[in-house]
Write a structure and sequence with these properties.
This is Pyridoxal-dependent decarboxylase. The protein is an alpha/beta fold. The chain contains 16 helices and twelve strands. The mean pLDDT is 96. It binds pyridoxal-5'-phosphate.
């Protein structure tokens, strides 16, 4: 079994195995005609469940043959131009190269003595990202597993800052107060269109879902800042503590960007932490033409970026950044065996001091390789292409009587629904849209997403592939219309 260990004696097997894996994926890319095969859970599950995990195949080639059947053949391929579903991007080759290297070397970025250059590379990328945002001289941050973790981490820091400040004030005024007194009074303000991970974070932080106040959005699905101002005032009036305002720079459904400068002003006025969730919109940081859409983000106390959404990076690759590096201490623990306090005093850079993870992937290498090969403008212009495509897609939808489209896109999503002529029951229209999405998925011809707007069922394109064209969009719209019409035809026939 030692022959499977990656070491000085097995370099040849390593090269052959990995090359063979790469060859299979390359062959797949060359021959994939649809984003997936449309296989159903019920078809695939028995195949996977029948495999005896206690009987290894020994041979990597045999395992790859099997993998073809259980995964590669039916996988959902995000590189396909008709994958328009969720926020998954096609990936760039320098990042995939980085991925192959980081898992083979297998550095763990918790402590310096496990990573050396990896730590410094991650720190450079954090500084680089913070510089693009404009977070100032005292900034810091850390790579995370994704936007949900970044949001959670940022809100944890905001919670502990809010508690610290409240306790400090009480102490100065000679009042007795404990963290347990403060916690139930904390509130997070986020728009109705913000990501669910904000609510989930509040629950995990011991504050409950109710601690998040939903601020209404305007027609463009951006946070209504007059409503925010009113909510902040009523918090103060009711003796509550507005712990954080979460502004979303690129909402998951609409790509809308909350009015960052005005939110920053209100947050400052109420001494409230401003978190910007730019999980999706962060690609604009490198856009050669659209960086201004994020103006105001430089006022944030913390920012979430997901390189695996708009920097064309493989999952996972995300970061949380803060304006004031000292706030990261809320997630610091000095363990004798790993990162004793003495090391911090000696200025040994242990990233675990800043992270909520311990053992942690060197995801930063993927972004590093990408910047070193393609550069920031290269990534940004790819992102610009999908933003342009979404604008063209909106024109198509707006002119098409079969569909109604919600908002003109700021980034690269389109939320729309099939609307049949005539006076059909609204729930039937909902069902037709749901059916169209499902039937399209089952056909494997294309993948689109769905969401609800004001209680009604909508369809959604998330455009992240510069290879997708307006003809792809038109073709997918035709397919959706056919499926919806078929559903309505069948169901009207049943009802008449
Ligand atoms: C996707 C998304 C998240 C969550 O990020 P993950 O990487 O999926 O955990 C958070 N916020 C917004 C706005 C998102 O679009």
């Amino acid at each position: 079994m030692r022959s499977h260990l990656l070491n000085e004696t097995t370099a040849d097997l390593y090269r052959r195995s990995v090359t063979e894996g790469v060859d299979r994926v390359a062959a797949k890319l060359a021959t994939t005609e649809r984003p997936h095969t449309g296989i159903a859970v019920g078809e695939l599950a028995p195949v996977i469940n029948s495999i005896d995990l206690d009987k290894p195949l020994e041979d990597p080639a045999a395992a790859l043959d099997e993998l073809e059947e259980v995964y590669l053949r039916d996988a959902v391929y995000f590189h396909h131009p008709r994958y328009l579903g969720h926020l998954n991007c096609p990936v760039v080759i320098p990042a995939v190269l980085g991925e192959a290297i980081l898992s083979a070397v297998n550095s763990s970025l918790d402590t310096w003595d496990q990573s050396i250059g990896g730590t410094l590379i991650e720190r450079r990328l954090i500084d680089w990202t913070a510089g693009r945002i404009g977070l100032g001289p005292r900034t810091d941050g850390v790579f995370t597993s994704g936007g949900s973790q970044s949001n959670f981490h940022a809100l944890l820091l905001a919670r502990d800052e809010a508690c610290r400040i409240a306790l400090q004030r009480a102490h100065a005024e000679g009042r007795d107060l404990t963290k347990a007194d403060v916690l139930p009074r904390l509130r997070i303000l986020a728009s109705e269109a913000s990501h669910f991970s904000v609510r989930k974070s509040a629950a995990m932080l011991g504050m409950g879902y109710e601690a998040v106040i939903s601020v209404p959005v305007d027609m463009g699905r951006r946070m209504d800042t007059s409503a925010l101002a009113l909510e902040l005032e009523s918090c103060t009036r009711d003796g509550l503590v507005p712990m954080a305002v979460v502004a979303t720079a690129g909402t998951t459904d609409f790509g809308s960007i909350d009015p960052l400068p005005e939110i920053a002003r209100l947050a400052a006025e109420h001494s409230t932490w401003m978190h910007v969730d730019a999980a999706y919109g962060c690609g604009l940081l490198v856009s050669p033409t659209r960086r201004h859409l994020l103006d105001g983000i430089e006022h944030a106390d913390s920012v979430t970026v997901d390189y695996h959404k708009s920097f064309f990076q493989p999952v996972s690759s995300s970061a949380v950044l803060v304006r004031e590096r000292d706030t990261l201490r809320h997630a610091t623990y000095h363990a004798d065996y790993l990162n004793p306090r003495r090391m911090a005093e000696e200025r040994i850079p242990n990233q675990v001091d800043k992270s909520i993870q311990t053992t942690r992937r060197f995801d930063a290498l993927k972004l590093w390789m990408t910047l070193r090969v393609m550069g920031a403008d290269g990534i940004g212009s790819l992102f610009d292409e999908v933003v342009d495509l979404a604008a063209a897609g909106w024109e198509l939808l707006d002119a098409d009587p079969r569909f109604e489209v919600v908002v003109r896109p700021t980034i690269s999503t389109l939320v729309f629904r099939y609307v049949p002529g005539g006076d059909l029951r609204p729930d039937l229209v909902d069902e037709a849209n749901l059916h169209a999405r499902k039937a399209l998925f089952a056909s494997g011809e294309a993948v689109v997403a769905g969401t609800k707007v004001d209680g009604r069922q909508y369809l959604k394109f998330t455009l992240l592939n510069p290879q997708t064209t307006t003809s792809d969009i038109s073709a997918v719209l035709d397919l959706l219309a056919v499926h919806a019409e078929q559903y309505l035809g069948a169901s009207l026939a049943v009802h008449s």
